[in-house]
Amino acid sequence: MKPVTLKQIAEILDISVTTVSKALKDYPDVSKKTKGLVRDLAQTLNYKPNEFAVNLRTKESKTIGLIIPEIVHHFFSSVIKGIINQAEKKGYLVIILQSNESYDLEKKQLKLLLNKRVDGILISIANGTADFNHLEEVLRDGKPLVMFDKIAKVVNCSKVIIDDRKAAYNATQHLIDTGCKRIAHFRGPLLPQNSIDRFLGYKKALLDNNIEYDSSLVYICECGDKSFEEGKLNAKKVLEDHSDVDGIFINTDMVAIGAITAFKDLGVKIPEDISIVGFSNWFMSSAITPTLTTINQPGYEMGKKAFKQLYKELKTLKKEKHIIPKIIELETNLVERNTTKPILKN
Amino acid sequence: MKPVTLKQIAEILDISVTTVSKALKDYPDVSKKTKGLVRDLAQTLNYKPNEFAVNLRTKESKTIGLIIPEIVHHFFSSVIKGIINQAEKKGYLVIILQSNESYDLEKKQLKLLLNKRVDGILISIANGTADFNHLEEVLRDGKPLVMFDKIAKVVNCSKVIIDDRKAAYNATQHLIDTGCKRIAHFRGPLLPQNSIDRFLGYKKALLDNNIEYDSSLVYICECGDKSFEEGKLNAKKVLEDHSDVDGIFINTDMVAIGAITAFKDLGVKIPEDISIVGFSNWFMSSAITPTLTTINQPGYEMGKKAFKQLYKELKTLKKEKHIIPKIIELETNLVERNTTKPILKN
């Protein structure tokens, strides 16, 4: 059955389309009797207001676009949940696209969303993204854009982030405080800011504690959907390359859990031989043996805050005011578990 | 900057809106010169075709709706990934809503999607859904509807499923084949079909092997975002209630991993004291200790097949033909790992 139109309702009742429209919107200049007739017929014929048309008039689609690098990832799915729950409260629908960590795909998807006339865009950029012109274009278009987690510093939009450098510093400091002297780092890819910042936090903690920085102790992970395997692989490599390593700060929990699995298979004792600190506090961190010491990264909260900021900017635009980009920084904390030793007493 | 319209382009060039529209669409009855002028100006002014308006005319939004019970769940996020990847290939965008396993929310969301005039709907129903009128309405509206994983048998639409009963039978049979005699079942909630079918498969395997069915050995899990905790809780309960249990077939891997964690804490040896078979083959199943024997449930494949079926139905509708609902059953298999003993030789 094709959807019934206002025109058809008007014809059946022999009144004007305007009257039908006004009746459905409860305008005071339509009689109660007419309103009753229109509503009853609309219900009988299963009339649905054409939301897309309404949107054209109000210039709003009440739809926002979300681009994330990877859906099957506990952190990002928590973020998605935060965004969707918050968006629904405000009457917005969310179109989700996955960039697969590819710059080309991300660029294409952004264009697609703009063509779809979404009201605003939330994005966590792909590891491969080094050029930001596609993001600048969103702003030139006058669309609100909020970045979260994996951001581009140079793009002048709002951002919801954590202090990756500080969190990584604390993670590395914890390894030092528990007696580790030769600390490796499994870092993320070279480009994304959070992976750079976590690396810099690691390096600074070493230097502040008079531990020499050795670049051969830094291993790169792509951190895509092969994270678990990469953790296993790097664990084997680090043992081959450096028999004296006694601590590792690992970019994400998933990679850390891969590393723990490999170390256990190889008979390495955790935390006695090698201590490990992860990053994200994925709930599996407390389920594995030994339980993983990690940095708690609030995914759901990040999604919620990102949508809230976008919503604020949409309201600002409606008032024809200028958007002032805001940096929202969420707190992280170290969760001590069993992959690290107790802190040494002085 | 507000988006430029066809009308504005027409005014600047002093030609009709129709000519501008035809020029952009490369109609043969517009001169090359005019086409060149229009295209150059459209590019300079950053013209974007109004997709929503186009959609109104073709009666297509090129957008589909997806309702799932829970996003932060490895199986469902794999399904989402399969759907999104496939949809993008065919030029469709996906609006994702999460029902939080609530019937009321699911009903509301379905209405929202219909009002948004999505072209079709993919759904995995909430545990709380027992009345299916909201789903029947989608079909009455003439919209293609494809259900996956958690389906309602009585709704006459296409479905992508696995044979849950057979898979559960095989899981239980494996416990029997490896010597278990007193087998408990941690089942899902009472309503959803897959949870019923898994329970029935468990029961049938017992009866076929002349093992008495004992309802006190069946424990219910809500299987929401507290799955891991539920697994731990039920593991403790089963030990208190039945000291003689030597095997458990568990509805999902997440619950199984919770149970394994609790059993390890309590000093129960797996698989010697209690053997466990899970369901889904979440990748963490091979990361925990001991690695989990489980049923492999193809999430990504399910998402892909569900979109493909919806796409076929959209094409059928375009040809003004009648949709014939199809049941697509995907294969599952048992993955033997270390939470079960080797199969007994006769």
TrEMBL record, chains A, B:
Keywords: DNA-binding, Transcription, Transcription regulation
CDD domains, per database record: HTH_LacI, PBP1_LacI_sugar_binding-like
Amino-acid biosynthesis recorded as keyword: no
InterPro entries named among the record's database cross-references: HTH_LacI, Lambda_DNA-bd_dom_sf, Peripla_BP/Lac1_sug-bd_dom, Peripla_BP_I
Gene Ontology molecular function: any one: transcription cis-regulatory region binding
Domain HTH lacI-type, first and last residues per copy: 4-58
This protein's record includes keyword Chaperone: no
Identification of the protein by name: LacI family transcriptional regulator
